[in-house]
TrEMBL record:
SUPFAM superfamilies: Outer membrane efflux proteins (OEP). This is Membrane protein. Keywords: Cell outer membrane, Membrane, Signal, Transmembrane, Transmembrane beta strand, Transport. It comes from Emticicia aquatilis. Belongs to the outer membrane factor (OMF) (TC 1.B.17) family. It is found in: Cell outer membrane.
Amino acid sequence: MNKFLIIFLLISSKLLAQSQLSLEDAIKIGLQNNYKVQISKQQLEIAQLNQQVGVTERFPSVSFDVGQNNLYSNNNSPINFVKGVFGDNSLNADFNTNYTIYNGNQRNIKKTQLNYLSKENEQLLRNTRASVIKDVIESYYKTIIEREKSLVLKETKSLSKLRLNDTKLQLNLGKASNFEVLRAENSFLIDSSSYLQQENSYQAALNKLNMVLGSDKSKNYQLTDKLDVAKDEFNFEALKSKMLSQNNEILAKQVETNLNRSKIELIRSQRNPTIGLNSRLGKSYSTTRFEGNAPIKGNVSNFTIGLRASIPIYNGGELKRGISEAIIQNKIGELQLGELKQELSIELTNAFTAYQNQLKAVKLNQQLVKNLGNSLQLVKGRLESGFSNALEYRTIQLEYVQSNFNYLESMYSLKSYEITLRKLIGELDKNY
């Protein structure tokens, strides 16, 4: 009774130590903890803040200035009207307003640039999120694959153990030799060693998953999702059309190109005159003191309003050079956009072709696993009936293990190409 209680407690503690983790939760954790995503969010927040505040030139600038001065003088010059020792104290207050009425449409252009910067940062954030999601999904499924490989080798090790025990029994009955027992034991040892090595691979994959999720400690997750084949049938032309219109990198580059065009407009607008309005309301108080006399107090009030205009005439060709440079930069941006579209189109073609081929490989490996599983059962029966030998059984057994590995790897590669396609068409991050 106590023995069963101890076993139950050990199993329960192991299960409790494992935290269940779905793919959706893994993606949420990865996005929450990733530093690049957090940095991109802060950059987007700055851009949106600038967009909301807008261009400061749209509003007047207002200032209030206060000053207090003290003068003490001992003047004995014969040419001055006021002689002797006196003191003068003054308090000045000014209320100033400046407003730009017209500056060659620079206000609207700068506002447009702020909108472009906000959109560009938004696309860059989406691209960063998509890259993190891709890493999480691939790491999640890689861990599942390594776990499935461990289960295959665990089953193989168990079969080898049963085969070893059966051979020992046959030896006691005089139906097997010591050589056959030794071969069965070697097979069991090889399978045990392979299982331990695979457990190391599984643990390494689990550790990498923890790293991708941004976890400081290595947690022993129980992954709940299954690795399956996508139900959607991909059409290359439809994928390419979506990529050109939805890909985050392309959209960010297009916004950057629009921003370059607005820079040309901004520099050209500097040819236009600037017209502004300014006003000043001032008040000053003064007190003058002479020795032996009562203080003399006074105050002055004034208000001024004016219109200013600045017309650019010549600045040594600097404006012309600035326009030429902005045009060249815009051309470079357009060429970079074309280059990016070309590179992504090639990447899409390669991923689509690989996906189609891998889809066929999955079906072939799946059938091969089924065939070798049946062959293993048949050769086991033949071995027990004396119509086969241990070498044939072992050969089929190893082929069965390898076919399972090939099937699992082909499934993982298929999923990886699917993720790549979804990232290229800009749909990987839409649900997160």
